Amino acid sequence: MFDTRPDREAEVALVGRSNVGKSTLMRELTGHSFDTGGKPGVTREPNHYDWAPEDFVISDLPGFGFMSGVHEDHREEIKTNIVRYLEEYADSILVAILVVDGKSVIDIIDRHSGPDGAATAASPEGASGPPDEIPYDVEMFHFLQELDVPTVVAVNKMDKVDDRDERLNELCDRLGLLPPWKQWQETIAPITAKNGQISSLNEAVRGHLHEQQRDDLFKFF
Ligand code: GDP
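^ thats the input. predicted complex w/ guanosine-5'-diphosphate below
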């Protein structure tokens, strides 16, 4: 599993729960439609969009978390594979894009937060909700930071969000970033992938590429 990655020096990787719009975003970024079996949330192997001449690849890792019709053991296996992949290629990953659903992300995080508001990642699995709803998003964000991978949180489906600033400030708070969100434009990028509104993400990604002297890759974003 997960051994389909082309051997490339530089990578941008998309991670996120199932159904947050990763495939839609991948299509926007690459102009290429990947076959996910026709059913949302069933991508179990990474999709790699490979630019050999630039020695660059954009990868869409499988969605994690709840997937209807996928057994829990298999979900765990997918999550483990994602973690291993990120560890193995951390040095090549110039930017990670953590995609979340702007409409539901706060509720999902808070459902699994302790009384002090901290995510209870360390609590026994299932203690604060079904095991398929651990706050992966917060965990994943911190994990990417531990790996020193510059990360942009693409807050998707903003077309469905009315209280935009409030939502984004709450998200900052949950991720341990001091609001207001506008201070974090290289980390928090509200988008509507479905309508092709992804310029805030492109800007944020470019910012991180620039910091790594990779302006040559701007053409992809
Ligand atoms: P994935 O499982 O993360 O790859 O998610 P998909 O790309 O398959 O999208 C899941 C669902 O969300 C689909 O029905 C998409 O049409 C929808 N979706 C994706 N992006 C947006 C968006 O920006 N706004 C809204 N309202 N829906 C979106």
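The radius of gyration is 16 Å.
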